[in-house]
Design goal:
Blueprint: E1 3-7, E2 11-16, E3 19-27, E4 30-33, E5 38-41, H1 45-62, E6 69-72, E7 78-82, E8 84-86, E9 89-97, H2 99-105, E10 111-122, E11 131-132, H3 134-139, H4 145-168, E12 171-183, E13 188-191, E14 199-203, H5 213-216, H6 222-235
Antiparallel strand pairs: 1-2, 2-3, 3-7, 4-5, 6-7, 8-12, 9-10, 9-12, 10-11, 12-13, 12-14
Helix pairs in contact: 1-6
Length: 238
C-alpha cells in the first residue's frame, strides 16, 4: 500500500510501495484560489486535470523537455512520476501582462507586450510568493547560476511548445506557472502539474476563459470548460 508523503490544496503525493524512485500523484476534486481562502470540491475535476497534465507532459517529453512524468494510471486520476526533490521556486511565463503582475504594475489585464515575461517567485505562501531574481535565488542557496539559466531557458521553451500546441486547437495560452525539481541523480526536471489550474487559457474564437479564473471570479461551469481543454487536446490524436 502506498504511503502519503504530502497533501497539498488539490493533489496528494504518495510513495510507491517497493520503489523509492517513484511517487503517485493523486489529483483530487478540490479547487482553491487566493492562497486557499476560497475553496470548493468539483466532482470530476481531478480526473480532467490529470488527463490534461498527462497529455501535456507527453508532448513536452516528445519535444525534448525532461519531466518527472512516467505514466497515467488506469483510473486517470493519478500520475506515476519519478521522485524529485522540489526546488522552492515558481516560474511564471506571461505572454502579456496578466493576473497579479498586471495588478502590481497598474496596467489592464491582458495588455499586450512586445516580449515574453518570465518571473521568478519564492515558493513561500506565508510571504505571499514574493517576486525575486536569479541572484537572490542563488544567494538563498536554492539553485546555482547554471541551474537558473536552465530553469529560465526551459520555461521559455515550454511556453513556446505549449503556445503552438494550443493554437492548433484554437486556444490562446495567456500565462503558465512552472515548477522544477531534482531527481536522485541530480538531474534537473519539470515537476508538479500543467493543467487549467496553473495556466490561463482563452478560447480564441469566443473569448471564453478555460482556466481557474472561472472559479476565482465566479464565472461558473468550471469543469465544463476544463473538459473543453481536454477534448480539444484529445482531438489532436484522433
Amino acid at each position: 500500500m502506498n504511503n502519503q508523503l504530502y497533501k497539498g490544496k488539490e493533489k496528494t503525493v504518495f510513495a510507491v510501495a517497493g520503489d523509492e524512485s517513484k511517487v503517485q500523484v493523486l489529483f483530487r476534486d478540490d479547487i482553491s484560489a487566493f492562497h486557499g481562502v476560497k475553496r470548493a470540491t468539483l466532482p470530476g475535476k481531478g480526473k480532467i486535470n490529470c488527463s490534461v497534465c498527462a497529455l501535456i507532459f507527453k508532448e513536452l517529453e516528445r519535444a525534448g523537455v525532461k519531466t518527472h512524468f512516467i505514466e497515467q494510471d488506469k483510473e486517470c486520476t493519478s500520475l506515476i512520476c519519478r521522485h524529485a526533490k522540489s526546488i522552492p521556486l515558481q516560474i511564471f511565463v506571461r505572454n502579456c501582462f496578466s493576473g497579479s503582475t498586471a495588478a502590481m504594475l497598474g496596467v489592464a489585464d491582458m495588455t499586450p507586450t512586445p516580449n515574453t515575461i518570465v518571473e521568478l517567485h519564492l515558493k513561500k505562501e506565508e510571504l505571499d510568493y514574493p517576486l525575486i531574481n536569479e541572484h537572490l535565488a542563488v544567494g538563498l542557496g536554492l539553485i546555482n547560476y547554471d541551474e537558473a539559466k536552465k530553469m529560465l531557458d526551459t520555461s521559455l521553451k515550454v511556453n513556446e511548445i505549449l503556445s503552438n500546441l494550443f493554437k492548433k486547437v484554437g486556444i490562446e495560452l495567456i500565462d503558465i506557472r512552472l515548477e522544477f525539481g531534482r531527481l536522485d541523480d541530480g538531474s534537473f526536471v519539470l515537476i508538479d502539474e500543467i493543467s487549467p489550474d496553473n495556466m490561463r487559457l482563452e478560447d480564441i474564437a469566443t473569448g471564453e476563459r478555460l482556466d481557474k479564473d472561472r472559479f476565482r471570479y465566479d464565472l461558473g461551469h468550471i469543469c465544463e470548460y476544463y473538459q473543453v481543454v481536454l477534448d480539444k487536446l484529445n482531438s489532436l490524436n484522433s
